From TrEMBL:
CDD domains, A to Z: secretory_peroxidase
Xref: InterPro entries: Haem_peroxidase (IPR002016), Haem_peroxidase_sf (IPR010255), Peroxidase_pln (IPR000823), Peroxidases_heam-ligand_BS (IPR019793), Secretory_peroxidase (IPR033905)
Role of this protein: Removal of H(2)O(2), oxidation of toxic reductants, biosynthesis and degradation of lignin, suberization, auxin catabolism, response to environmental stresses such as wounding, pathogen attack and oxidative stress. These functions might be dependent on each isozyme/isoform in each plant tissue.
Organism of origin: Canna indica
Enzyme class per UniProt: oxidoreductase
Disulfide bonds: 40-116, 73-78, 122-324, 201-235
Keyword terms of this UniProt record: Calcium, Disulfide bond, Heme, Hydrogen peroxide, Iron, Metal-binding, Oxidoreductase, Peroxidase, Pyrrolidone carboxylic acid, Secreted
Name listed for the protein in its UniProt record: Peroxidase
Reported cofactor(s): heme b; Ca(2+)
Comment on bound cofactor: Binds 1 heme b (iron(II)-protoporphyrin IX) group per subunit. Binds 2 calcium ions per subunit.
Length: 329
């Protein structure tokens, strides 16, 4: 064969191989469930094993991981900014002082840095860990898209204007959710996260007043009387700031639809839980999920996917941190 023709054929073949490679290589600008198929194929297994081991040792871990994801995604987007330590970071805001399970995400990161160095973002690890926390407590397994980059900004001043407060009305809750691209239906569905986890007594202390003898007296008509007295006993005025109560006193360790059954019976722990049945826009969904766990699980999958893709960063919008608690130097 003529040397020029041979070189031309080789050039065409090389170009075609490059085109095929580019076509099948996941793009960092678009999240994909198989983003790490080539670069770190066992990432999901490693994260799940880490979450399972931690949860076996400490049953509060699943609820903490799920809450951690909410507090991450609602502020700077799902970019792991809540994981950063340092003066003035999100973690220093009083609303975030009670967050936990940071060590679980960091443990998974250290493992992945050994097997897939510089490849998997802390933001993706947190999403996977929260996803696994739901499944390990009885909830649905969700296939989540990956490819997030870790954010470079974490500021305490951004926390309060973005997170949800337990004293919010439905209007305030809806406004905060819609500002993140979430619907009022997402609000009801994602409130179901309170089927696991716990809350500190001060998260619902505004629902009580203190009488002259120092006893807590229910002051919220949206609480069933016996349930309110039960809470008053669990959280007396003398209780320490570290005292917590399960969000769902009936099945605290199970991700199920009991939360909605509780709320319908006026046994929602937080004011922001109870208001869901006091508004026609949200009550019908609470009733639907109380009657059907399948309906809740189906809706949870869709709403969780929307939550976990809020404000994601890709390409040069962020980085892959070497450690989740600090940006790369």
């Amino acid at each position: 064969m003529d040397l020029k023709i041979m070189k031309l054929h080789q050039g065409i073949l090389f170009s075609n191989l490059i085109a095929v490679f580019v076509f099948f290589t996941p793009s960092a600008s678009q999240l994909s469930s198989d983003f790490y198929s080539f670069s770190c194929p066992n990432v999901e297994l490693f994260v799940k094993d880490t979450v399972r081991s931690a949860s076996d040792f400490d049953s509060t871990i699943p609820g903490k991981l799920l809450r951690l994801l909410f507090h991450d995604c609602l502020v700077e987007g799902c970019d792991g900014s809540v994981l950063l330590q340092g003066n003035g970071t999100e973690r220093t805001d009083p609303a975030n002082k009670s967050l936990g399970a940071f060590s679980v995400v960091e443990s998974a990161k250290r493992l992945l840095e050994v097997v897939c160095p510089g490849t998997v973002s802390c933001a993706d690890i947190l999403v996977l860990a929260a996803r696994d926390a739901v499944e390990l407590t009885g909830g649905p397994l969700i296939e989540v898209p990956l490819g997030r980059r870790d954010g470079l900004v974490s500021s305490a001043s951004n926390v309060r204007p973005n997170i949800v407060d337990t004293s919010f009305s439905v209007d305030e809750l809806a406004q905060r959710f819609t500002s993140k691209g979430l619907s009022i239906e997402d609000l009801v569905v994602l409130s179901g996260a309170h089927t696991i986890g716990s809350s500190h007594c001060n998260a619902f202390s505004e629902r009580f007043t203190q009488d002259s003898n120092g006893n807590l007296v229910p002051d919220d008509t949206l609480m069933e009387k016996d349930f309110a007295m039960q809470l008053a006993k669990k959280c007396p005025a003398s209780a320490s700031a570290a005292t917590t109560v399960a969000n769902d006193l009936s099945t605290p360790a199970l991700f199920d639809n009991q939360y909605y059954i509780n709320v319908l019976a006026n046994k929602g722990l937080l004011h922001s839980d109870s208001v869901l049945i006091a508004d026609n826009r949200t009550r019908s969904k609470v009733e639907e999920f109380a009657q059907s766990q399948d309906a809740f699980f189906t809706s949870w999958e869709a709403s969780f996917l929307r939550l976990s893709t809020i404000g994601v960063k890709t390409d040069d919008e962020g980085e892959i941190r070497f450690a989740c608690a600090s940006v790369n130097s």
